[in-house]
Amino acid sequence: MLRTNVQHCIKRCMRIAVQLLLFLFTGLQLSAQLPTAQFIAGKMKVGWNLGNTLEAICGENAWGGAVTQATIDAVKASGFNTIRLPVAWDCHSTNGVIDPAWMARVKEVVDYCMRDSLYVMINIHWDNGWLENNITPAAQAQVNAKQQNYWTQIANTFKNYNEHLLFASANEPAVDDATGMSVLLSYHQTFVNAVRATGGNNSSRTLIIQGPSTNIDKTNTLMNTLPADPIANRLMMEVHYYDPSQFALITQDESWGKMFYYWGANYHSTTDTYRNATWGEESYMDTELNLMKAKFIDKGIPVIIGEFAAIKRTLSPPSDQALHDASRWHFYDYLVRAARARGLIPICWDINKQMYDRATGTVLDQETISTIMQAAGNTPGYVRLVNRATGLLADGMYRSTNGANTGQWSNSGSDAQQWVVEAADGYIRLKNRATGLYLDGMGRTPDGAVAGQWSFSTSYNQQWKLEVTGSYIKLKNRASGLYLDGLGQTANGADLAQWSGSSSYNQQWTMTGVALAGALTATTAAAGLSGPSTKELNVYPNPFTTTFSVKADKQDKIERITIIDASGKTVEVKVHPSASDLLSMGAALKTGAYVIEAKGRGWTKKCKVVKIVQ
């Protein structure tokens, strides 16, 4: 017996020694944990909700419009780096088992986001209120059983995803007192326990806990403890912001309050005073956000504003539409700046799907998006303008002289067809990526006048009003009142023109974000390259025990992944790997050190990884 124990001890010591040698060989750290919540919060800047979609009761199309990769690409191109995915699960379940087809669809949408290197959070949303409307001692046991069951299934499906995926326990749990708060904490504790029990990356994944009703005042008063977590620094808090609700949400006067059309100290109407906000303006917002900073952020607990918005109203005289629009953009600007200044992460709710067309990714409310991006200090990506009538794209034609004509060209992938959108007092400017010049009406007022380009100025000729027409947009010049018009020109190189308002398709455009696999710059094209920047290739966790994930600057440009063992032998190859492939590799590998080689067109990048005994 003694001899057997000694042999066992020797073998175990040798195994540990081999693993330590592997660490020394590769220069890797011992920890395989995902980053802390504080680290992730520092990377998340500003976000967008894919609302009224996956949480639609029993069907993504119940409220119209299934999401596509093009939608997520557009969100990424706009400058958002975080997406919140509200999801319903209960009505997609039979006897407690989530429909595999539904789970696969949610996974597909998550993969859209992961492909664009976005931070993405999954929750259990309202879902017919089985949790949110049942926060009572009587319902506690039944709800906790469901919470345990669903989160075990969800967490197991996504256990190998990297730190870009976060889980959120609930949505807006209805709690008004200490008793409800105690019950809610049990639901959150069940959530934490269920996720951690699934192991893998879920052992250190960042989890998001909702305050009572996600209301700041209730959270500040009632939520004085967080669920116990076996790993430190992996929890975030969530609140929502829709104050004052008369401005942000309601669409008719109620017995408890009237609608507000104008918000902000400098945005009150002098002629429509009945609709000016009477509470909840800038100083109120500052006070509310300061509560969350003092209660959580100053103690090292990150906070997200999981939802905020202000409804876009269509007004009739004597109400002032322009003043309402301006005050609404001021609300977005002030909230995002105030939140970011205090360390909170703002994630806007897209009310009535007004920002993006879900099927095509067409941008429908660029003024609001640009306002958010400028307030967050984010540099947006690029958009393309495609004419509805001809399919030609607005093109700067590489003309860099002030006053040069703007042209049109079929889709080439050229950076001359890409434009940065900037906010300008309720209007937008369009800056060409290739030349740095702005689309300019040039002060020309006759129908058919050519649209030009000019270096930056404060001229109204460079400002355009974005009008929505179905799934298309129209661009009206602020100085002349003319609309950007393709004039039915179908020849590459034709001038882009302007015309007074009409219902012609020549004045209708799609504005879509440039996908990550999009056009090359002139410099890159000249060098014969067509892949992502190859500065960075990471694998994690590293070392790993079961599977590892691969991350590159632009994952969709990877054409082949090769795994090579210590003897130089190729042991695994993935050709055109999918997002799911990149999230779960190495399951069949034996313990040891390997080289991971990623290849794209014209580039190669390598790194080392170690598999150890669990």
Descriptive key words:
614 residues, alpha/beta, Immunoglobulin-like, TIM Barrel, Trefoil (Acidic Fibroblast Growth Factor, subunit A), 3 domains, 8-stranded parallel barrel, 4-stranded antiparallel β-sheet, 13 helices, 27% helix, 21% strand
Explain how this protein is built.
27% of the residues lie in helices and 21% in strands. The chain is globular. Strand 6 (165-168), helix 6 and strand 7 form a beta-alpha-beta unit. The protein has 3 domains: 2-30 and 530-611, Sandwich (Immunoglobulin-like); 37-237 and 309-326 and 350-376, TIM Barrel; 383-519, Trefoil (Acidic Fibroblast Growth Factor, subunit A), CATH 2.80.10.50. With 614 residues, it is of the alpha/beta class. It is built from 13 helices and 28 strands.
Topology at a glance:
Layout lengths: L1 H25 L10 H7 L3 E3 L19 H10 L3 E4 L7 E2 L2 E2 L1 H16 L3 E5 L16 H18 L7 E4 L9 H20 L9 E4 L5 H7 L12 E7 L3 H4 L33 H14 L7 E6 L12 H22 L2 E4 L17 H11 L6 E5 L5 E3 L11 E3 L9 E6 L2 E6 L5 E3 L11 E3 L9 E6 L2 E6 L5 E3 L11 E3 L9 E5 L8 H5 L10 E4 L8 E4 L7 E6 L4 E6 L3 H5 L8 E9 L2 E9 L3
- CA gyration radius, whole angstroms: 27 Å
Task: Bin the helical content.
Answer: 25-40%
Number of helical segments? Answer: 13
Estimate the global geometry from the Cα principal axes: globular
What is the strand arrangement across the widest sheet? Answer: 1-2-5-6-7-8-9-10
> Count the strands?
28
Return residue spans where pLDDT drops below 50 for at least 5 consecutive residues. Answer: 16-31, 515-535
Q: In the CATH scheme, what's the topology name of the largest domain?
A: TIM Barrel
Task: Quote the average pLDDT.
Answer: 87
